[in-house]
Specification:
Structural class: mainly alpha
Radius of gyration: 18 Å
Largest sheet: none
Number of helices: 5
Number of strands: 0
Helix content: over 70%
Length: 115
C-alpha cells in the first residue's frame, strides 16, 4: 500500500513539474514576443494561455505551431511597404488578443486533447 501511495505521489510531482515548466516557458516566450513586437500588450494573457496549452501538448504540438507562427509573422512583415501601397498591409505592430486567439485557440485545444 505504501508503495502505491509513493508511486501516486511521484506521478503527481512529475506532472506538477511539467505544468510549472510549461507555464514558465510560456511566460518567457510571451515576454520575448512582446519585446520583439510580435504581439501587443493586450495579447499577453491570451499568448501565455495559448503557449501554455501548446506546451502541455508536447513536442508533436510545439514544433508545428512554432513553424506556423514564425512563418506567418515573418510573411506579415516582408514587403510591408509594397503591401501598404496596395492597401493590403496588416498592422505590423504585433498581433492583438483577437488575432492570438484566432490563430492559437484551435491548435492549443487540439494539443490539450492530444496530450
Amino acid at each position: 500500500m505504501h508503495e502505491q501511495i509513493m508511486s501516486i505521489v511521484n506521478v503527481a510531482i512529475m506532472y506538477s513539474l511539467i505544468v510549472i515548466a510549461a507555464l514558465i516557458i510560456s511566460l518567457a516566450l510571451t515576454y520575448a514576443a512582446l519585446r520583439i513586437k510580435v504581439i501587443t500588450r493586450d495579447a499577453v494573457i491570451p499568448s501565455v494561455l495559448v503557449g501554455f496549452m501548446i506546451l502541455l501538448g508536447g513536442p508533436s504540438s510545439i514544433v508545428p505551431f512554432i513553424v506556423f507562427l514564425g512563418s506567418s509573422s515573418a510573411l506579415t512583415k516582408i514587403g510591408v511597404e509594397r503591401k501598404e501601397e496596395l492597401g493590403t498591409a496588416e498592422d505590423v505592430r504585433g498581433r492583438n488578443w483577437k488575432q492570438v486567439l484566432a490563430v492559437g485557440l484551435i491548435p492549443s485545444a487540439l494539443a490539450l486533447l492530444a496530450a
